[in-house]
Fold this sequence. Notes:
The chain is mainly alpha-helical. The chain has 7 helices and no strands.
Amino acid sequence: MVHGMDLHRSGLQPDWQHIFPIERNVWQRIAAATYGIITPANAVSALGGGLVAFGLWSILGGNIGIGLAALGLGRLADIADGYIAARTHTKSPVGEVFDSALDKLAMIGAIIVFVAVSIVPLPVLVFIGLQHSITIGLSIIARLRGHTTHPSAFGKIATGLQWAVLLIYVGAELLRTQNVASGSTLLQIIAGVVFLASLALGIIALSGYAAIAATPPTRHKT
């Protein structure tokens, strides 16, 4: 499963770089003309980011049902963008950075909103925020040492599970407001189990980033 994932991840060059312009598909031509900015996957990523923002705003305003639906659709879009980039052969460093940046902004926004509305237990939010902060720090260190970092499969799965945790807690809150106490409690238990799984995978992902960051800087012969 891990090796078969379509991550929104590219090499140093975009997919269309070494293809003659006449042989490129329509999506590659558009991507090449816009320096990798306009691609089907980037459009899906942007749509997903907008849905997540709308969902968080709705939850902040007390519209939990609408917020839950929008968040769910937004995260499905994040799953789809890597698949679309792979199938249209339009993966590029620009798309990878764009997708990663949106993911980080979405998670930061989610943590802020859920702290404000007190739907998700604070320790869960702290651990999620800590993991992402460490990941960002290790990525910065790795890049400063001349190494390229990419989203890992374990990291993507861990992040997906973290979003599942947040969505399950929102679902539990929705049931609570509808006086379905038993269902709300069950969902909270499920969220706790999924959170532990995400924590384990997150640690594995962090170990990979740490190994890259600890690698000695690349030295070029002069």
